[in-house]
Amino acid sequence: MQFILKTALLFSLLIGATEVMAAKTSEPSLSLVWQVTGLDIPESVLEVHQGGQDFFLVSVLKGDYYSKDGNGDIAKISKNGQLLDSAWASGLNAPKGMAISGKFLYVSDIDEVAVIDLKNGAIVNLIPIPGSAFLNDVVANKHGDIFVSDTGAGKIYRIRNGVPEIYIDNVPSANGLAIEKDILLVGSGSQLVRYNTASEATLITQMPFGLIDGIAEVKCDGYLVSVWEGQIYWVNSDGTKTLLLDSSTTGIFTADFAYSKKRKLLVVPNFFSNTVSAYRVTY
Ligand SMILES: [Ca+2]
Ligand SMILES: [Ca+2]
Questions:
Q1: Of the ligands numbered here, which is closest to the C-alpha atom of 44?
Q2: Looking at the CA of 62, which ligand is closest?
């Protein structure tokens, strides 16, 4: 009897300890909220706050990654997942990463960066990037500098006052970018790397496979990170990580997402599936 009581006590203590550990190490979970269909290869999503309105812009490649076919668009989606305009901006080739600085949207387009008026979607300038091969993601810092990754040439460029220059060289398969204060987070192939202001690299973590595409800081100790081939991870700042979603086995890609802190919403372009899927993030 005493043995049974002791065992029961030990068991309940263990259960209690497990619950505490689970609470301390709880990872976010994702639940599908809405989905938009009919976008011809969406690569990147950006949340926009403008004139009291919140919405999402989506770069739509149409065709392959590198053809100057003139048919690429930027689509506009409401905060609740309605397709408002499939061609809010048009006349691009294979648009990919997007960032806002001031009143303008900067979009990478193969070997140049298109500058688009946020008021009306008109292309107001094109900034050629000399020597570029396959421009991909774009981020802006609060000083107005624009950073652009080049997956083909393995470089990161900085555009300052409209003038591009090589900012970091030798970044193999540079794709996803995020910026927090003056620290640049870079997806370099399967590696998530942090660059300080002196462009010194620190490896945060290495994914099992694939090309890191979307990176977003969610809170001070963690990031959401997507692998293009269909995986989404939660990555702690110490590099430990948890796989939150795996559609790689079903061939549904997860490209350069937007994360809305306000809505706790992860908005993922599914590339070849021609869909954009929005997930509620619970943590
Ligand atoms: Ca195209
Ligand atoms: Ca990308």
A1: 2
A2: 1
Q: Which of 57, 95, 115 is nearest to 257 (CA)?
A: 57
What Rg do the C-alpha atoms of the chain give, in angstroms? 21
Which ligand does the CA of 174 lie closest to?
Answer: 2
| Ligand with minimal distance to 255 CA | 2
Local confidence pLDDT in tens for the 283 residues of the chain: 444 444 444 444 444 433 333 344 467 899 999 999 999 999 999 999 998 999 999 999 999 999 999 999 999 999 999 999 999 999 999 999 999 999 999 999 999 999 999 999 999 999 999 999 999 999 999 999 999 999 999 999 999 999 999 999 999 999 999 998 889 999 999 999 999 999 999 999 999 999 999 999 987 779 999 999 999 999 999 999 999 999 999 999 999 999 999 999 999 999 999 999 999 999 8
Give the number of domains in the chain.
1
Is 83 inside any structural domain?
yes
CA 80–ligand 2 middle distance (angstroms)? 24
245 Cα–ligand 2 center, Å = 18
Quickly count: other Cβ atoms within 10 Å of residue 62's Cβ.
Answer: 18
Whole domain around residue 188: which residue ranges?
Answer: 31-282
In a domain, 2, yes or no: no
Q: In this structure, are residues 159 and 148 in contact, taking their beta carbons and an 8 Å threshold?
A: yes
Task: Identify the three-state secondary structure at position 2.
Answer: helix
Give the Å distance between the CA of 198 and the centre of ligand 1: 36
> Ligand 2 centre from 41 Cα, in Å?
12
Say which CATH number the domain at 159 has: 2.120.10.30
